[in-house]
Amino acid sequence: MMKPLYNAFIRTHHITSRKKVQRLRHAAQVLQVDFVMLRFGGAPGLMYVESQSEEAVAEWVAAVHSLRYKDYRCLRKPSPVQAAEFGAQADANIAVERLGDGFHEIYSVAEFGKQIDLRGLRDWWQKAMGYKSE
Question: The pTM is what?
């Protein structure tokens, strides 16, 4: 039986500091977080974290908060992943296009959204961003 995954989603004004990104990368390694994706560059700054440990996700979110990002908002607090199931007819390219475990920097909101979609979290993300009503 697979262990459940936990995730969280954070929005900030922007993510441009390489020093802060290095601290987040280090925190992810120390906490053994499975997957982190940042939207780096201009506004908005987006961060998605996923792990088999709810505690690791919560501690990584706390590490982000401690860096005092402008307009920090944890839009989705650490909780079990509520991914949509992909059926047997799922696109074979998903496995190729979807980012694997690790720490990833994305440079556009469109690419960030695509990666969220490939994880089966489109509705979850759109509601968090305010693109859809709850």
Answer: 0.88
